[in-house]
Amino acid sequence: MRKLFLAMAMTIVTATVVSAQENTKENRMNVSSVQTDKDNRNDGDSRLRCGIKFRIGLSGVTKIELESVDGNPLAGRANIKVDAQGNAVMEEIGSASAIITFRASDPSGFTPDKDYYISTLPCDLYGGYRLSIYKDGLVADYFGVHQIVKPGTFITPENLAESELEFEKPDAPLVEKERPKMDAITHQLFIQYRRKPTEANRQALLERMGIRYDKVVARKKNKLRELEREARTYNIVEHMQGIVNEMVENRDIRIQQQFLRFIDPRRDENPEDTWMVLRGASARNAYIGYTPVTNAEYARFNTGFMYDRGKDDYPVVGISIKDAEAYCDWLSTKDSGHNYRLPTEEEWVLAAGHMPKDVSMNSGHAESGLTAVDAYAQSKGACGGIDFWGNCWEWTSSTDNNGLYIIKGGSWDSKRDDCRSEKSDDARNGSQSYANVGFRVIRTDSN
């Protein structure tokens, strides 16, 4: 899976620098894409040598792979100019490689708790880099962000927690297995903010959440680079590029949504009912339905509504925006303490949260049509509700620039990636009804 293009490996000495005073007016730097812990990294001008320093406490680690997830050159031949601020300007880069393989010369692996140095060209790794750690025939990935390798410096991976490394077979697909869990640092900052909600504590928590988000983006970028090397069709690459672009463009919005969800202190007043706390919502005491509205629920409002026998718990579809709003108004008349309405797109995303990559759902013709709303009850959204992804699209009250109503979550006949919570370019005519579009309801306090 991780092809290294070893044919590109250079036989030159790692990080050799030719003085500008000899034959050229520039510094020339040669960095090999294949290195070992025995390579001499003391040759040349120490003011230019740079890269990544790492230390692993685990025994049996025999190889480290370093990759720039943005495809920036880490190895190759380059002419280097350094400005007055110490910034490196590279010119005429040859034999460039965004991947460096670093091997232990000892068959037993690197010495635990010893510093090792991977030499690189000066490079901008702010957008992310991957360290793949090989041990006992398995590999674990660490993703770093917000770091830049400048001439004369060796950066170190920040917060590389070996206890959190997950080792898999090298050919295992690089995917998110679940929503990233809150790590110890983020949890500590969260508790600190809850106890003392100052602006300084808020910014510290947001900054940490931004780092966590960017690590997820780095993983996606790395998957994109992998597809660029190995995918048989460009459509797959193009689709992944769209996902990465969306995550980058909506970064601040997504982080703010996560933050609001984090700090919302509310608890479910009645865990036995079908209303889930919508944490992070700006509306007064907002709750959202556990499932989309079902045929049986809608039929209690519209006694003339007909549906197939045995499909009481299937989501109601073929409902226009007007019909859905009428159902919500009916619920409001029956409950003097609450108002009922369709969710906005933002509220729907808050409720669903990020769709886990391996979520089980009714999409991509996995079923021959609609299923009961609890058929995939093991897949839960961020609020604890179910059936957010696949089965049927769901109306929101939000509209696009053309006045069409945005729908969310995909359906049984949608491509899996079209079901992603963040996907915002699907919209329909609200005056029409569709066989694969249903709706879910928001409940707020009336006072």
Automatic annotation (TrEMBL):
Q: Which domain of life is it from?
A: Bacteria
The segments labelled Disordered in the record are 24-43
Give the Gene Ontology MF terms in alphabetical order: formylglycine-generating oxidase activity
- Pfam families membership: FGE-sulfatase (PF03781)
| Signal peptide location | 1-20
Q: Which Gene3D superfamilies match?
A: paralog of FGE (formylglycine-generating enzyme)
Q: Which residues form the Sulfatase-modifying factor enzyme-like domain?
A: 257-443
Keywords on this record? Signal
The name on file for this protein is: Formylglycine-generating enzyme family protein
Please report the organism this UniProt entry assigns to the protein: Candidatus Phocaeicola excrementipullorum
